[in-house]
Structure formats: C-alpha cells, structure tokens
Amino acid sequence: MGRLLIVSNRVQAARLEDGSGNQGGLSVALSAALRESGGIWFGWSGDIAEHFSGGMHFEKENGITTVTVDLEARDVEEYYSGYANCTLWPLFHYRLDLARYDRMFANGYERVNERFAQTLVPLIEEGDLVWVNDYHLIPLGDQIRRLGRSNRLGFFLHIPWPPMRLLLSLPSHRQLVELLLAYDVVGFQAEDWLESFHDYLRVQLGLEKDEKNQIAWNGRTIQLVVCPVGLDSEDFKTIVRSGAAKAAYHSMVQSRADRSMIIGVDRLDHSKGVKERFCAFERLLATYPRLHEQLFLLQISPIARDDLGHYREIRSELEALSGRINGAYASPHWVPIRYVNQSYDRATLAGMYRAARVGLVTPLRDGMNIVAKEYVAAQDPDNPGVLVLSRFAGAAAQLDEALLVNPYSSEEVSEACLQALSMSKSERLRRWRLLNDVIEAQDTSWWWRTFIGFLDDAPESPLVRS
Ligand code: G6P
C-alpha cells in the first residue's frame, strides 16, 4: 500500500483519552487511520491570514504529521460558513427551507478548493493514496487531476447524500456530481445515500452501476462503496474503564438519585431533532403523570457554528422550549429537562452514558451518528441501558436491535422511551449484546481498512479530461 495523504477541512489529531468535545467521530477515525499507516493529514489550520499565501504549517502531534494552511476571512465566510454550511449542509440534510444559494458562496468554494489543490499537489508523491473527506472538498479531486496528478483519489462523504429531486434545486447540481466522478472511489455511510447518488447518475447522466457498484465514465471506472464509519471501539472501552469515566459515572448516579435518566448528546444543529425530542419528552410527561418526578432528560448540546443565523435560531428555540416544558412540569424538587450547552471530554460522556437508562438519539437526518455507538459501548455489560434510535440516521442500518423510531412522531418516540424504561433485563441484555457485537466488528479500523482497500485496488487514473 502506498503512503496515505488524508485531506479534510479541519485537521485535528485526536488524542485517545482527551477530547475537547469538538473532537467528533471524524477526527477520531482519521487519526486512527494515520496512526497505523503513516502519511500526512492536510487541511485548513483554523486560522485566518490577511492574504492567502499558501504557506504551510508542518507539525507532528500525537504521532501524526499534519500540514495546514491559513485561509483569508473572505474564504472562510464564502467557502466554510457559506457554501459548505449554508448551502450543502442543509440541502444534504433534506432542509431545502434552510439552504441558501448564492453565487459568491459557490465561487468561494471553488476558489478555496483550488487553493488547497495548489498547495497540496507538490506534497503528493508517486504511488501516494489521496483520501479526501467530506462535503467541504468535493471539487478537490478534479483540481488535483487538472494539476497533472494521476494518483488514486478517494472521496468519503460523512453526511447524507440527498435524494435526486432535492439535489435538482441546487443551481450547479450536475457540476457537483461530475466533480465527484473525478475520484476513483466514492464512499458513503449508508446504502440509502449511495442509492440516492446512483438515482441521480441514472436519471440525469444515463449512467448505471454494475453488480460491483462500479460506474464507467469517460474511459475510467469509479467504484461506489458503502462503508459506515465505526467507533474506535477498543480505545473507547479503555476510556470507559478509566478513573475519569468512573468518577463521572458515580457523580451522575448520585445526582440522578433513584430517578431514571434519559440522555441525549448532540452538537446544537437543526439536523439533530432536539426540538422534536423535547416535544416527545413533553408528550411522555403529559400522557403518563405517574412518571413525573421519576425520570428526567439530560440533553447535552454544545453550541456549534453560532455565527450562522439558523444556528442562532435553533439555539433560542431550544432555550424557549426547554424553559416552557420545565415551567409547566417542574416541581421544587425536580426539573424534567436538564439542558446543558457545555461540551465534555469523552471520559465524562462515557460515565454519563453509563448512568442513563435510555440513550435517545433522534436526528431528523444524519450521515451516521457516532453518539449512538458510544452510548452502547459505554453500557454496563451486566445491566445495560436501551438505545432509542432514529430510522433516519445512517447508524440505523447497522444498529437494528435498537428501538428504531420516526423522530418526527412524538407519539412513536415517547412510546419507545416508555418501552425502553420498562424493558426486562433479559431483553435489554439480548439487544445490547447484538448491538455491541456489530459495533466491535465494524469499528474504526474496519472502516478505514475497507475504504483504503478499495482505493488500493483501484487502477491509477489516466489523465483524460472531460
Ligand atoms: C459533523 C459531521 C462531519 C463534519 C463536521 C464539521 O461532525 O458529521 O461530517 O465534517 O460536522 O463540523 P465543523 O464544526 O467543522 O463545521
């Protein structure tokens, strides 16, 4: 196997036992790949320069070499906040109502991808495998080809791919899809997303995949792959057994007293369905007064992308909603929703997951959802809690022994919570063992090895331009 060059917008070499809370599944998973294979991780430094210079920062951190570049304020506004997070993110999460189409955003997206390609290309050696991650960087592969590199290029999308009819609302939809065809391997988190991509190819471009999920295009073959991101299961279990996790568990058990705790942990994002979750929890309280004072919901939602309007809106909606529900149901000794905007390290989260009878993971749409896997992995194997999981998370395809729900239906979600709270121990054990087996078998290392395996098998691309 050649050297691995990983590219992603954010470069965040993840430590094992540390975690800022911002350290999402992506950084953990990619760190694990690089730690084992060697190579370089390339992306944005997170810093802003007055003018883009292409100057690179080389660092070695936690056994991983990172190379980063600074961007201009205008780049960040148009490429990251604009096209990536105001256009593609809402559209790819099926939220046409929130998606903004702006020519400036599209230009900025193209410009930054070009800048990344120009900086990265001199670092690419013959035989290197280049693995580009996520929606910020779809055009990068095409840019690398334009600069004359024939290395094998892979792209993995960590978020959903939208249905064809939604994608048609993007002014440059065809261009975006064709850019993806510059890669040799294109990976998705779940079958549903690959199928949506294939629908587009079939209907709009007249391309059919064969039985190996390969597409023939301009004299090249593009391999489509479903490859769900896994949990760094062994490392996470070490975290679960750590003193810090145990301390967090004990303090949570003390604070919950003999009440049952339901936990939700999500970045504050409209795709996570936290508003709908609060409403479902309210319905549970309204329908079953006997549960009052017996349980509570701990919702941990670190604030994200707060400079964008629709993120500030969801934040104030959640503040109002949790306040209203607590006002209506709380007593002097009990608050039904503990709503927390702080972020916690993985050890503290592991302890809190373990203290919760129910893990409530109900995104309206999600590429994968690693919290669902962490909740399961953190449980006490002798007395596990129950995962209630949205059917619309990529994770649902693997975790079908969870209680699967439609997150838009407060009736379904509240009834699943009740079922989880009253589930017998034998049934909890049965479900947990099956879930845990999948999580351990299809872990982070399985994920990147599978993806890189496909990339390694792909032939080098002839330099033909469409
Ligand atoms: C989530 C998604 C990732 C994405 C990341 C970007 O974690 O699952 O696919 O790359 O958000 O987050 P950021 O904070 O960099 O906007």
TrEMBL record:
Pfam families: Glyco_transf_20. It comes from the Bacteria. One of its GO terms (biological process) is trehalose biosynthetic process. CDD domains: GT20_TPS. Signal peptide: none annotated. One of its GO terms (molecular function) is alpha,alpha-trehalose-phosphate synthase (UDP-forming) activity. Belongs to the glycosyltransferase 20 family. This is Alpha,alpha-trehalose-phosphate synthase. It comes from Sphingobium chungbukense. The lineage of its organism: Bacteria, Pseudomonadati, Pseudomonadota, Alphaproteobacteria, Sphingomonadales.
